[in-house]
Specification:
single chain, alpha/beta, ten-stranded mixed sheet, 13 helices, 17 strands
């Protein structure tokens, strides 16, 4: 394809995530785009809205043959279709068979073998996982080792789940995405050491929320790479309906009727929590470096209104970096290879209601907080 602009195929390109990613890539002005999905008319409408550099192709993500036809001729395939955990690694295998590089806004669903032909694959290039994993690098400037540094991260959201989002959320609970009540300590995952659900105040959220400790594999990877002494992650719930539904699912009380019925329950619960309220997504990271004069604390807060759009921006940045040849060959997690400043800049340019804030606090001498709790309004 010498002399032509790189072709990026966006699978699921007219959905909420894919359309956001496509708009970002179209705004870059240096790529040709291919919008794919099962509804050819929706794909055509999306492509037309992006201008002359976009084309539409029908693509059934549940068909290997259809996926391979879609990927043929692409330099990069950006997978934004779902439910990602049901599609498993089909899109990744199709991209490899077509000789294309690959980006997935989810975690890639299972072990990540090296791409065929020494291609590049970037997985977990979304909001969470993805943007969530960049928090430790934002706070450390990507430098390692950090010695005694301790990191605590939070993801708090409010808003109705889509059906696809609910299915992926439930499936992730059973696929080893993280470990409940665990923390990273001195180079190891230590299980069962943290309390269960509790109420906390988190920076960027205007009132207390219920948080639950859930150490993600993404954070484990960052803690290992950055040499963190301790790392914890909490998922936050603004309201009780969604948390109650997930607790019923975890306990096995809500697994009758199959995944569709369970996902419908999650959609209903999240809708009840969000009723009459403005949706938001908050990622908050806290880094402590204990010393003889206390534990200086640095915080980063990322707050946005549209989780699908935030996911799309991160996926687009990943596809852009791969298409530009800035990511080495092989399989990578997005949080390890994406440029933190490039992602933050893209969020600011394409989602002006998304705000990134940093702060530094120096506590009184001798005061060391082993489990930092943030105060409202301190950003």
């Amino acid at each position: 394809m010498s002399g032509e602009a790189p072709l990026i195929g966006v699978l699921g390109g007219y959905g909420a995530v894919g359309a956001a990613a496509a708009r970002v890539l179209a705004a870059e002005g240096e790529f040709r785009l291919r919008i794919g999905g099962r509804d050819p008319e929706a794909a055509e409408r999306c492509a037309a809205s992006l201008g002359g550099a976009a084309e539409a192709r029908e693509a059934d993500a549940r068909s290997d043959a259809s996926l391979e036809r879609f990927a043929q001729g692409c330099d990069v395939v950006l997978h934004c279709a779902g439910p990602a955990y049901e599609l498993a690694d089909r899109p990744r295998r199709a991209a490899a068979a077509a000789g294309a590089d690959y980006v997935d806004v989810m975690d890639g669903c299972g072990p990540a073998p090296a791409p065929a032909g020494e291609r590049t694959a970037v997985l977990s290039a979304g909001l969470s996982p993805g943007l969530s994993g960049l928090l430790p690098r934002l706070l450390t400037d990507g430098r390692a080792p950090l010695g005694a540094a301790r990191f605590t991260g939070y993801y708090v959201s409010l808003g109705a789940f889509t059906r696809t989002g609910a299915m992926d959320y439930l499936l992730s609970l059973d696929r080893g995405y993280g470990t409940p009540r665990a923390q990273w300590r001195d180079g190891h995952v230590v299980r069962g050491v943290l309390r269960g659900a509790e109420e906390r105040v988190v920076a960027g959220v205007p009132h207390p929320v219920t948080v639950y400790p859930y150490l993600t594999q993404e954070l484990v990877g960052q803690a290992r790479a950055l040499g963190l002494a301790e790392a914890r992650w909490y998922n936050g719930f603004d309201g009780h309906h969604l948390l109650d539904a997930l607790n019923r699912y975890r306990s096995g009380d809500d697994r009758a009727g199959g995944l569709e019925a369970q996902a419908a329950g999650v959609v209903r619960a999240s809708t009840l929590d969000a009723l009459g309220r403005s949706p938001y997504h908050v990622l908050c990271g806290v880094l402590e470096r204990p010393g003889p004069e206390g534990a200086p604390v640095r915080r980063a807060v990322i707050r946005g209104a549209d989780g699908s759009a935030m996911t799309g921006v991160v996926g687009a940045v990943a596809a852009r970096e791969v298409a530009r040849g800035r990511v080495p060959r092989g399989v990578h997690r997005a949080a390890q290879v994406l440029p933190t400043r490039g992602v933050m800049d893209a969020l600011g340019r394409h989602l002006p209601d998304t705000v990134v804030t940093f702060s530094d606090d120096v506590p009184a001498a001798g005061v060391v907080s082993a489990d930092p709790v943030m105060e409202v309004g301190v950003l």
